[in-house]
Amino acid sequence: MTDSAARTVTGASIRLDGVVKHYRGQDKPAVKKLDLDITAGDIVAFVGPSGCGKTTTLKMINRLIEPTEGRILIGERDVTGENPDTLRQSVGYVIQSGGLFPHWSVARNVGAIPRVLGWDTKRIAERTDYLLDLVGLDPAVFRDRLPKDMSGGQQQRVGVARALAADPPVLLMDEPFGAVDPITRLRLQDELIAIQHELGKTIVIVTHDFEEATKLGDKVLVLSEGGHVEQYATPAEILADPATPFVSEFVGSGATLAHLTLSRVKDVEHDAVVIARVGDSSDEVIGRAMAAGATWVVVVDDDGRGLSWPSLDEVATKPRVSDYVDARLPTVAPSSTLNDALDTMLAASQGGVLVTDGRGAVTGALTIATVMAVIRDQLSDARADGSTYVAHAAGEQA
Ligand SMILES: Nc1ncnc2c1ncn2[C@@H]1O[C@H](COP(=O)(O)OP(=O)(O)OP(=O)(O)O)[C@@H](O)[C@H]1O
Ligand SMILES: [Mg+2]
Questions:
Q1: pLDDT score of 260
Q2: Domain annotation for the chain: domains and CATH numbers
Q3: Is the minimum distance from the CB of 23 to ligand 1 under 6 angstroms?
Q4: Tens digit of pLDDT for each residue in 307-331?
Q5: Ligand in closest contact with the CA of 52
Q6: 66 in contact with ligand 1, CB cutoff 6 A
Q7: What distance in angstroms lies between residue 3's CA and the mean position of ligand 2's atoms?
Q8: Which residues are close to ligand 2, an ion, with C-beta < 5 A?
């Protein structure tokens, strides 16, 4: 979910009009008859049990799978009659493991569609560097790398950059973060929200994970077998008012602390942090920290990005602030959910996390006490509402 206020929309609307998919040799259709309107510039998350038709529906949008019946419109274009190859150049597609060509460099992978479109070399190179930067990879470091020499999360970022290469109005993603570790997954989700905010594409994302759906989706489409629409609404509406028993059960079993995914880091108050720079006088830094009642400081680089968070005792061991880099410094973005913040703390075995802005600069901190206080409030509110699905929540998170 993104703020609706200052949003650029470059995406196109998508409309499914009586779409049916009957695979040859199957007695029942995989998608019975689906009508769906997706607003330009929204992120819509498809969720539902295995085999309910999520992938089939997604792939009909770019005609990797041909619908048996019905029409699909992207913007004003009826794409059911369009040349599938041309269509796929205007619809970005990201699959689970990134789907990169292993023997091609990152740049060659990202430039694949622009090359087909006949862009000149300079324009492709500029676009590649812009996109690598956008997805958080330093072009100078990664441009010439092979995918096999990168982590799963980095490959996934390249997959997103490649899908955006020809600036398509629509981005389709099929469980794109399924194969990465939970903390990288949180990062990638936050990056996707930031990218969406910056570019305003229409994004359709398939996920098994209801919590991921509520975090990312402006709207969530809950499907049951045969591509049957159980509910299509905002995450808050689905949580507050599940349309059918199927939705209640799906929400209940999947997302124990789903309510917490509605609370973002940006919605709660942060603790102020005392900032120091490499080479600052330790006495001066300790003096400032003590005046602010802090027992530790954050050392940042020239861009304000966190390098380490030493205690005052550690600072006092040297005359000047050291350039030590703590590779495991836990950080969250404003769009991260409180659940993400907790997970990040647990993964780093820390009682707090640093909060960073869109460019990665440290703006404050969030402690476990703050997060737990919000969780307690939410749980007691939910109990007062008589909600059934939070009773077993607290235990499962740890
Ligand atoms: N190529 C195919 N030929 C025949 N049947 C298929 C084919 N692809 C999918 N199906 C069937 O269509 C139904 C929907 O499959 P689909 O892959 O869309 O489900 P899904 O919701 O993406 O599931 P999952 O969460 O497991 O990825 C399933 O019953 C599946 O077995
Ligand atoms: Mg699938």
A1: 63
A2: 14-256 (3.40.50.300), 266-372 (3.10.580.10)
A3: yes
A4: 999 999 899 999 999 999 998 899 9
A5: 1
A6: no
A7: 29
A8: 55
Q: For residue 393, what pLDDT band results from cuts at 50, 70 and 90? A: very low
Determine the residue type at 209. Answer: D
C-alpha 349/C-alpha 142 separation (Å) is 30
Between 395 and 134, name the one with better pLDDT: 134
Distance 51 CA to ligand 2 centre (A): 7
Q: What are phi and psi of 335, to 5 degrees?
A: -80, -10
User: Chain-wide mean pLDDT for the chain?
Assistant: 86
Q: Tell me how far CA of residue 306 lies from CA of 136, 139, 272, 309, 360, in angstroms.
A: 16, 21, 14, 8, 8
Q: Between 223 and 338, whose confidence is greater? A: 223
Ligand 1 pocket residue status of 56, Cβ below 6 Å: yes
Distances (CA, A) of 97 to 31, 33, 179, 211: 25, 30, 6, 20
Q: Whose CA is nearest to atom 22 of ligand 1?
A: 55
Q: Measuring CA to CA, which residue among 227, 172, 169, 175 is closest to residue 62? A: 172
Q: What is the pTM of this model?
A: 0.77
Determine what percent of the chain is predicted with pLDDT higher than 70: 90
Index of the ligand 1 atom closest to the CA of residue 58 = 18
Ligand 2 center to 108 CA (angstroms) = 28
